[in-house]
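Today's session is about reading a structure prediction critically. Students often jump straight to the picture, but the first step is always the sequence itself: look for stretches that repeat, for charged clusters, for runs of hydrophobic residues. Only then move on to the predicted structure, which in these notes is written as discrete structure tokens rather than atom positions. Here is the chain we will use throughout the hour.
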Amino acid sequence: MPEPGPLSLPAPAKLNRLLHITGRRADGYHELQTLFQFLDHGDTLHLRRRDDGAIRLCPAMAGVPTGQNLIVRAARALQAETGCRLGADIRLDKRLPLGGGLGGGSSDAATALLGLDALWGLALPLDRLAELGLTLGADVPVFVRGHAAWGEGVGERLTPVALDTPWFVVVHPGVEVATAAVFGAPELTRHTPPITMARALQGGASSWRNDCEATVRGLHPPVAKAIDWLSARAPALLTGTGACVFARLDSEAEADRLLDEIAGRWQAFKARGLNRSPLHDALDR
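Below is the predicted structure for this chain, in token form.
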């Protein structure tokens, strides 16, 4: 059997179209209800098999020791789970900002898990890969499963959903938001009454909100400025704990016009909302 060739795979961004915090657990984690959706924009991982078991990642990420990088941790977790003695050279084309609420690190980890599973010929069940992903971070399983989803618990209990697929303009206000600081803020709303998935979907995008937004506004005035500016032009929300904010547009032409207006103010990009991850499309090909 020929050795599998190198793989180049997407690690897409996600948006939280809705994010409610319904409680705080004894271990300090928060109970959430959220709607995850993918974008046709993100990082790219290039994977090449090694026979010596070594995991080599380049380029190194500033401020992140290699052993703590989620890509390397994902690869080593897969080796430990399966006893696989193969390794990989991994090159990351990084497009998603750190601390942006777009799930970049979690998406990179999921792409590493699924890509290396294919490259090494392991064929682990998707459920097991999602379980491994959860040991790396609460957002990793949705990227592993690859479908827009209603998430509960810490975001790991997932039910596939079909959401509208508009165009989005995503703005990075130029600050990095620490998730721990947001969830640790005393003013954070933590007791939104739980709702059913059906009720959330029935309410539609016009009723969706992010419970972290008020706290992030207070901690990071540039985020508040970006949300206010976007909201004057289209429905806008914070994604995750930020820093990125997004506006929903009905057409690509509207997205282009908004990008033209943003030019020079912030870093921004346009993307289409997706219900199926482009990672899974690439692996199927």
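Discussion point for the tutorial: The radius of gyration is 19 Å.
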